[in-house]
Amino acid sequence: MPLALAFEALGAGPPVVILHGLFGAGRNWTEVAKSLTADYRVYLPDARNHGASPWAESMSYAEMALDVLALIEREQLHRPCVIGHSMGGKTAMALALAHPHAIGGIAVIDIAPESYAGQFSSYVSAMRSLDVAGAASRREIRQALADGLGAAAPVDLVMQNLRRQNDRFDWRLNLLATGLCMPELCGFPEALRNARYDGPAFFVHGAESDYVPPSSLAGIRALFPRAETERIADAGHWVHADQPAALLCGLRDWLADACAAIPY
């Protein structure tokens, strides 16, 4: 059964939905959304088990696509363009392949429709191992995470899941479910391997990221024959943090074309 996702909406115009990645939340994309609000109504949902959205034991891409579809239907959005990063990008792809008539196009940021190594399992383990309820400060928790995960880990992103309630810290993330579902989150639904989405598709990746190597492009175009691709220099997996201006430039151009093709 689809969950009623928590979300924020900004701006006015044709609808755009932005789906965050694992360990993220809709608010991570607020600055990008603000830059689009002069022309679009931008929706920033929190995925299930993230942010302010409800928790559930499972979080397959089929389920998360249905959560977004339910949001589209509940808010009566007419074929929104859906932008997704990492886990959100896979959710956007699953939505497009399973429910193509509900959307006007997808933009996928630094992810491909394939399986990846479960490198994020260590993040869940590190977060679960900390006694955050007994911690005296955010600095103490951040240092413990940095010590456990290493300097290259996106500790600041993980720390955005930390909240303080009644003088105690806890996580705004269902760590148990996320850990148990990690193999599914690192994969891509086999049931969609023979599907095809013929609508507008835009695949952006960071030049310094190894998530979308040249070998991924054939698989992308097999599922999304109209896929346009763009490689952003000096950007890693978190393209929106590394090169926000370059990402916005590409998204604006693509959105203008994709939205112009949607009949109203």
Please describe the topology of this protein.
Blueprint: E1 7-11, E2 15-19, H1 30-36, E3 41-45, H2 61-74, E4 81-85, H3 87-98, E5 105-109, H4 121-129, H5 138-149, H6 155-159, E6 162-165, E7 168-171, H7 175-180, H8 182-186, E8 201-206, H9 217-223, E9 227-232, H10 239-242, H11 244-260
Parallel strand pairs: 2-3, 2-4, 4-5, 5-8, 8-9
Antiparallel strand pairs: 1-3, 6-7
Helix pairs in contact: 2-3
Characterise the protein shown here:
This protein has 2 domains: 7-116 and 187-260, Rossmann fold, CATH 3.40.50.1820; 121-180, no CATH class. The chain has 11 helices and 9 strands. The chain is an alpha/beta fold. It has a 7-stranded mixed sheet with strand order 1-3-2-4-5-8-9, sandwiched between helices. It has a two-stranded antiparallel sheet with strand order 6-7. The longest helix is centred in the last third of the chain and has 17 residues, at 244-260. Helix 2 packs across helix 3 (87-98).
